[in-house]
Amino acid sequence: MSWYFMMDTYIETERLELIPLTAPLLKLWVEDLSGLEAELNCSYEAEPMEGFFLDIVKVQLEITQNDPDNYLWHSFWLLIRKTSRTVVGAADFKDIPNENKEVEIGYGLGKAFEHYGYMTEAVQAMCDWALKQKGVSHVTAETDLDGFASQRILQRCGFKEVKRGETIWWKL
User: Which residue among 17, 31, 40, 87 sits deepest, i.e. has the most Cβ atoms within 10 Å of its Cβ?
Assistant: First the structure.
């Protein structure tokens, strides 16, 4: 049976399906992209799986494998455009909710899909989902000082700037 159909949690928006990757799916993403595409019946056109981004995903794979019960908080969620089954980006919660009932969200989009509102749609849906979960009262995010597109996404989703230093911290 496909891992895709065994998942009990995913988020659907107007244009996207947000699919959280179980540890086996996350492993496919890291090691066998064509295998992941076959498993999810999609084509991957998001951020290239290389360099710093690949390193981040590998770390999250190890954490997800070690804590499979909390994979929704450790793994990445692929953003799949419904009309074409194209992976346009990915987002994640960087860890389980902390003692302040906060989770941090991160996200990235394939260059070809910027400026279409996909990430705003996905971030809003993921935040709505997170805030309905037990133990979550706030979603936080960090942006670079010059990350204006990311800052606009957060502002559109209702985040407020809470701290500015070498980076900007946001809270919803």
Answer: 87
105 neighbors 126 (Cβ within 8 angstroms): yes
- The CB density around residue 122, as the number of other CB atoms within 10 Å, is 27
172 residues of the chain, pLDDT tens digit each: 344 444 567 899 999 999 999 999 999 999 999 999 999 999 999 999 999 999 999 999 999 999 989 999 999 999 999 999 999 999 999 999 999 999 999 999 999 999 999 999 999 999 999 999 999 999 999 999 999 999 999 999 999 999 999 999 999 9
Sign of CA dihedral 68, 75, 88, 154: positive
SS (H, E, C) 86-132: EEEEEEEECCCCCCCCEEEEEEEECHHHCCCCHHHHHHHHHHHHHHC
Do 139 and 102 touch, CB atoms closer than 8 A?
Answer: yes
Nearest to 124 by CA among 91, 164, 148: 91
DSSP-assigned letter for residue 85: T
